[in-house]
Specification:
heterodimer; A: about 270 residues; alpha+beta; five-stranded mixed beta sheet; elongated; B: mainly alpha; Cytochrome C Oxidase, Chain A; about 60% helix; globular; disordered C terminus
Chain lengths: ~270, ~600
């Protein structure tokens, strides 16, 4: 039976790596991998994911094969060698402490820049140090996304603000800053295709930023449990050309004037 | 003394206070309100195994909804529970399901089965003590679980819905009653229940620390302790220092809910058109306090398992544990670093990203001691004579699966990657590989391993291997594909993710996962049957059926009140398998070196009396 169990444990790296290869290389199965990335800053996240995947993959395969081989070779039913009476090896301990330590420290330092870009270095206005103002303010509440655009004057809180719910439009190829806040409980603003995720804490004002490079329609997902209707807190993100975006915004503005509708949550 | 012969010394029953037996009062003092650590350990074991069943069934409810959302739930649907929804579960019920699944599994199964059941049973036996340092405190720590069982259990039945704020209970959702209508009282009961679990664990940890420090047999120096005891010892330290924080935070949240304080609520917080709370607090404060305990708790949930696995692997490799001291240091390293990594649960929470960076570095470094442990386990089986017994198979699978769980942790330690995979099924895959494929499998192995000591009988090995094989296959079928779901961004805690275009095509994969999960739970019937049958009808065994070295195997099976029928004196560490000093391939800790007389009371001078 030792042979059988050894092979069972060998199947772990074989099937495990197999599944990842099949999904990542899309062999006979599509869309079971990182969804399409349309954010210029998102590439670095995907690259880092793949880098860690290769690195851990090597360790996974190596340790898996070592486990299999030791079980196969030292099965008491087959092995005639006497037990190796050793209590450890100082050299080995040093080697297998320092090598992973150096590797882990390398990953830690290597990714700091990507983290800072994503969460700490908000884009500035061209040619100045002034922070880029948000194009739109997203207010989350149970269970919808309320939107408020600054309008033509680009200042939030004026008469030409444009309001909307769950239907976010963004121009392509531009640095975009979105202000996010919550009216009630925790939510999380998750744009899978833009590799953006930020929990929204009531009482705090936060910002996310990105630069999309492809037109299309994508999902806005709430990724932090916010109550019974959490699953249906769905929004739609439309990325279009600047011209189309301007036309859409103007249309929204005009429709809004006519309807006198002013959603609560816009304060 | 040579204690390898079958335990012919008769021991009527574990914890035998009973002299003549028979009266109701004696039954209660022996089996119910017992002061004997072995009975208390078994009480913990039976209670937690029952809750394990409950937690597993709750998981099946979650899986049903994810595979076939909004369809009539089998069994539950026909009870009239969801009569208004035509037998399908409501989204409120779904939030209750995953909240309670995690609560039950963490607070009622993993933590108490490791520390409560195995800690209680094994610590005095493995260090050579006759009982715990504080038997009454020990009994209390078990009976404090019952209010928790009652409170959290009853919160389930509080109409119309149970607690539904997740096991992390993040405010404001958990602190504002209006935010989750219907779970008003349930959430309060839940908080009270967690407080009782906390007090119970506190009493346990104080007891374990005192016992391990003060009551070791002569010759049992700290570096002769088995890894199981090291795991329990470090765990007890973690509990003693981290748990008060959670207990206090739970109390603060309780007052936020009940008497209108505002620790975790921002100014004028309100939800669902309820009245605004005065607030003035900060929701993130709860997350910091919660994870300050609950991250060390992750190690509380694995260190004892690592210890037990080390003992089992060494025993069935018939070879000394590779790198005993590095193993001890890495357990201590995990515990030390474990206190400064809690922020990795909060990378995208809104916490200062600069702070996230420091937590990222410490989190990366905590992978190091885990890696060292894996290498040492591999070193242990290298060059051994491996016996593929059921406990060994479970322990090997712990190593194999812990590699997966450990490696997937590196993805989320990398903060930029965590932005994408946070709160997705990648995380779910990760912690199920560590906690189920890791700890729960180790616990299964430990049950098969120590069962002969607990009941004086063996469990059936063939059934055990079938149980292992099916669990192993179904478990990987259930959890491995969750990595792929996570890579697509499939979020946790969504009652119906399929109305998003991004995730709509993932249902077939979820159906497969659910079928595997049902198979995995069904497989446990084999275990339950084997366990119960063997308690009464398994073949009886002597003291040391596995030919192991550590001290508990020198006591009768099952040990009587006071544990040892001789004064144990310790001559060496617990891993002297294959030693050239003796003819047998094992060399018990109590066996005097060749040429030296066994002398009970004048053993090693470095030892401590008790």
């Amino acid at each position: 039976m030792g042979r059988f169990w050894s092979l069972l444990f060998l199947l772990v790296p074989v099937i495990g790596v197999g599944i990842f290869v099949v999904c990542a290389a899309e062999i006979g199965i599509e869309d079971h991998w990182l969804p399409e990335n349309v954010n210029e800053h998102g590439r670095v996240i995907d690259d880092l994911f793949m880098f860690i995947l290769y690195l851990t993959g090597i360790i996974f395969i190596a340790t898996g094969i070592a486990l299999f081989w030791f079980l196969w070779k030292y099965d008491a039913a087959k092995n005639v060698e006497p037990v190796k009476y050793v209590h450890g090896s100082h050299t080995l301990e040093v080697v297998w402490s320092i090598v992973p330590a150096a590797t882990l420290l390398f990953i830690a330092i290597y990714q700091m820049n990507a983290w800072a870009d994503a969460k700490m270095r908000r884009p500035t206005l061209p040619g100045s140090d002034e922070l880029l103002p948000p194009l739109v303010e997203v207010t989350a509440r149970q269970f919808e996304w309320r939107l408020r655009y600054a309008g033509v004057d680009q200042v939030m809180g004026t008469d030409d603000d444009v309001f909307g719910v769950n239907d976010l439009h963004i121009p392509v190829d531009e640095d975009i800053v979105i202000a996010i806040k919550s009216k009630d409980v925790l939510h999380s603003f998750f744009l899978p295709n833009l590799r953006i995720k930020q929990d929204i804490v009531p009482g705090m004002k936060q910002h996310v930023w990105f630069k999309s490079n492809k037109k299309g329609v994508y999902d806005i997902v709430c990724a932090e449990l916010c109550g019974w209707g959490h699953y249906k807190m769905k929004g739609r993100l439309t990325i279009s050309s600047r011209d189309d975006f301007n036309i859409w915004l103007q249309e929204q503005y005009e429709n809004q004037e006519v309807s006198e509708f002013e959603p609560e949550g816009s304060e | 003394m040579s204690s390898t012969t079958a335990g012919s010394i008769s021991d009527s029953h574990a914890g035998g206070h009973a002299q003549s037996g028979g009266t109701v009062g004696e039954f209660f003092s022996t089996y119910v309100f017992s002061l004997d650590h072995k009975i208390i350990g078994l009480q913990f074991l039976f209670s937690t195994l029952l809750w394990f069943l409950v937690g597993g069934l709750l998981a099946l409810g979650i899986r049903w909804q994810l595979a076939w959302p909004w369809t009539s739930v089998p069994v539950l649907g026909s009870t009239g529970m969801f009569a208004t929804e035509g037998g399908q579960m409501s989204p409120e019920f779904y939030t209750t399901l995953f909240t309670m699944h995690a609560t039950v599994m963490i607070f009622f199964v993993i933590i108490p089965i490791l520390a409560g059941a195995f800690g209680n049973y094994l610590i005095p036996l493995m260090i050579g003590a006759d009982d715990m340092a504080f038997p009454t405190l020990n009994m209390l720590s078990y009976w404090f679980m019952w209010p928790a069982f009652a409170l959290i259990g009853s919160s389930f039945f509080f109409p119309p819905y149970g607690a539904g704020a997740g096991w992390t209970s993040y405010p404001p959702l958990s602190a504002l009653a209006e935010a989750a209508p219907g779970s008003d009282h349930a959430q309060t009961l839940w908080l009270l229940g967690v407080t009782f679990v906390g007090v119970s664990s506190m009493m346990g940890s104080v007891n374990y620390l005192t016992t391990i420090i003060q009551m070791r047999a002569p010759g049992m120096s700290m570096f002769r302790l088995p890894m199981t005891i090291w795991g329990m010892f470090i765990t007890a330290i973690l509990q003693a220092f981290a748990l008060p924080v959670l207990t206090a935070a739970g109390f603060m949240q309780l007052t936020d809910r009940v008497i209108g304080t505002g620790f975790f609520l921002p100014e004028f917080a309100f939800a669902n058109n309820g009245l605004p709370a005065s607030g003035g607090g900060q929701p993130l404060l709860w997350q910091h306090l919660f994870w300050f305990y609950s991250h060390p708790a992750v190690y509380i949930m694995i260190l004892p398992a690592m210890g037990m696995v080390s003992d089992i692997i060494s025993c069935f490799s018939r070879k000394p544990l590779f790198g005993y001291k590095p193993m001890v240091y890495s357990i201590s390293g995990i515990a030390g670093l474990g206190f400064i990594v809690w922020g990795h649960h909060m990378f995208v929470s809104g916490m200062n990203p600069m702070l996230g960076m420091t937590f990222m570095v410490s989190t990366m470094m905590i992978a190091l001691p885990s890696a060292v442990k894996v290498f040492n386990w591999l070193g242990t089986i290298w060059g051994g004579q491996i016996q593929f017994t059921t406990p060994m198979l479970f322990s090997l699978s712990f190593v194999s699966m812990f590699i997966i769980g450990g490696l997937s942790g590196i993805f989320m330690a990398a903060t930029p990657v965590d932005i994408f995979i946070h709160d997705t099924y990648f995380i779910v895959a990760h912690f199920h590989y560590v906690l189920f494929a890791g700890t729960a499998m180790a616990v299964m192995g430990a049950i098969y391993f120590w069962f002969p000591k607990m009941f004086g009988r063996m469990m059936n090995e063939t059934l055990g291997k079938i149980h292992f094989f099916l669990t192993f296959v179904f478990m990987n079928g259930t959890f491995f594909l969750m990595h792929i779901l996570g890579a697509v961004g499939f979020p946790r805690r969504l009652a119906d993710p399929y109305h998003y275009d991004t995730f709509a095509h993932l249902r077939p994969m979820n159906e497969f996962i659910t079928i595997c999960a049902i198979g995995m739970v069904a497989t446990q019937i084999i275990f339950a049957a084997n366990f119960i049958y063997s308690i009464f009808n398994g073949p009886t065994v002597g003291r040391n059926p596995w030919k192991a070295n550590s001290l508990e195997w020198m006591a009768p099976s099952p040990p009587g009140h006071g544990n040892f029928d001789f004064q144990p004196v310790i001559y060496r560490g617990p891993y002297e398998y294959g030693s050239p000093e003796v003819d047998t391939d094992y060399y018990p800790q109590t066996q005097p070196p060749p040429g030296q007389k066994s002398d009970g009371d004048s053993g090693d001078a470095s030892g401590k009396g008790h």
